[in-house]
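Sequence in, structure out.
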Amino acid sequence: MKSLSFGSLSPRSAFAVVVLTITFWLLSPLKMPRHAAAFAAQASAANSAQVERPAIVGVAHIGLKTDNLDAAREFYGHVLGFAEAFSLDKPTGGLMLVYFKVNDHQYIEVFPELKSPTEDRLSHIAFETKDANKLRDYLASRGVQVPAALKPGLDGNLSFMVKDPDGHNVEFVQYMPGSLHSRNFGKSLPDTRVSDHMIHVGVTVADRAAADRFYGDILGFKLMWYGGMKDDRADWVDMRVPEGTDWLEYMLNVHNPSPRALGVMHHFALGVKSIQPAYQTVIARGYKAEEPKIGRDGKWQLNLYDPNLTRAELMEFKPVQTPCCSPMILP
């Protein structure tokens, strides 16, 4: 702006002229497009920061610890009939884990790293996503602590780990072309498998509201059913993945559990069409199983335990009795 000369104008008049001049300059047609463009650019940047959550389609695996890999192989390989599809070594050498294959997209990962009889056998739970990078960005936008960037893991997949409100390790994995898993699609799927679908995983939850904020509000899991040992309380809450049929089970009201009790709580379930043939199969393979029973959710179930006391639950897909406590929303 050029300098102004006010001649003999009084100070008040000179001030009025300055105000009018600045106002005219700000509202001039030459300046308006620049201000409008800046506002539009800011709006566009805000919109681009709103990352949509990609699909989370099901349980990918459960990671468990053992101090006796041979005994674990007997249980998962022989009793349950799963093939030991492949394994991974540590970058520094030595076995890291073995994979027992439920189906092309679901595994039981066993780590020979249990150090103490009182140590939690659960390493982590994992869910499959269709876009790991986008899910990482989405969770970051919702305030969840995530890795700064993703790169393929030792198995060739894209995955990352977060902590849920109870401190459990929760992994999200995207199966990538050429990965260890993808190269073995269609392989290691014997008829000996007692089940071909892991329908849920269960973990202890101390604060249901906090878990709901994480799994429900942020990740999009949906309430499927809740029930308890008595009709007037909730001991279990089933939260279904947003784009699939599998679910996560909250195990509530657990206080200072023994190692065996924690193995009951930190568990996984394998779906079966009929519980009796599955029961007869594991009995024939030398496992001393308790009798099947109908749970509070109205489904036939059979509880088995691996050598380190982790519960492997065989469960029919649909209730045969009306579930207690709340309606069951089936997928």
